[in-house]
Write a structure and sequence with these properties.
alpha/beta, TIM Barrel, eight-stranded parallel β-sheet, 15% strand
């Protein structure tokens, strides 16, 4: 078994649920206990805990993650930011003191994308200087909104979630079709600190339970060709993924992809994110 670092997981209190009423949110075993068991089974040493407060049931998730990070050294949180245009360096410093290592953005509408152009230059520069990780959920042409940001801040460490969330497919598209669907994502490959998370394959192929989701594999091939395996990160999408597939399936889907070598998988599962986090840790101010 090779060691792993998880680039995208969620932890909510009292638990996440998608398909059941809120009163049935998963509570036993609690998400942290369950995830720790998976860590032991699959040799996961660290996890990026992606903050999300975009719905009422998730209110307070940043504070919850801060509390977990104070208890568990393996949990590396990134703070949810609803409106990036209102970010300040003071807020970033506060989060850094709470052991956050980056921010989490959900750019799912044109209005949200427009906020990126309003982020102050000192905020971008602080995140570059501190090697902070910027986890981004977005889709389609909205990825083009990052071109201006990255042209001005090319050392920003952008982590593209779920292959950029291309259109859901029921059968495998031709590689050219997949490339067209991902064009707004792959144009960001020219920026050397832009990475892609191999995660959420269950959400890209229908039906979602049809492991190993081969209909979505052309997307993964296009990303591999554009970014190279040194800029791909494995991610479990715990615990939302468990509504559709098992935790081991979220790992094994990468091992099933025939174009990825053993060395590629070692980089994707561990080396790439380990290197990013090492730089971030080196830039934490000494107390």
């Amino acid at each position: 078994m090779s060691p792993r670092i998880d680039a995208h997981a969620h932890f909510f209190f009292p638990g996440y649920v998608e398909q059941l009423p809120e009163s049935c949110r998963r509570q036993e075993p609690d998400e942290v206990t369950l995830y720790q068991a998976y860590c032991q089974q699959h040799e996961i040493s660290q996890v990026l805990a992606v903050g999300f407060e975009g719905e009422a049931w998730a209110t307070g998730n940043n504070d919850y993650l801060a509390g977990l990070a104070a208890r568990f050294s393996w949990l590396r949180p990134v703070a949810f930011v609803a409106d990036p245009s209102r970010l300040t360096v003071a807020q970033l410093v506060t989060w850094q003191r709470q052991r956050f290592v980056g921010i989490s953005l959900y750019i799912m509408t044109p209005d949200a994308a427009a906020m990126l152009a309003q982020v102050s230059a000192d905020v971008w520069q602080w995140m570059v200087d501190k090697a902070w990780l910027i986890s981004v959920n977005s889709t389609g042409e909205l990825w083009s909104s990052w071109l201006e940001v990255l042209t001005s801040n090319p050392e920003s460490r952008i982590l593209i979630a779920h292959l950029g969330i291309p259109p859901v497919v029921t059968s495998a598209p031709l590689l050219d079709e997949a490339a067209t669907a991902l064009l707004a994502v792959t144009q960001l490959a020219t920026f050397p600190f832009t990475y892609v998370k191999f995660s959420g394959f269950y959400a890209l192929a229908s039906p979602s339970y049809a492991y190993p989701h081969t209909a979505s594999w052309p997307y993964a091939e296009v990303i591999t060709k554009s970014f190279g395996t040194k800029r791909i990160l494995w991610a479990s999408d715990f615990s939302p993924a468990l509504e559709h597939v098992s935790f081991p399936q979220n790992i094994e889907v990468l091992s099933a992809m025939p174009w990825l070598t053993k060395a590629d998988l070692s980089a994707i599962f561990y080396d790439n994110l380990s290197g990013l986090l090492q730089v971030t840790d080196e830039r934490i101010p000494t107390p």
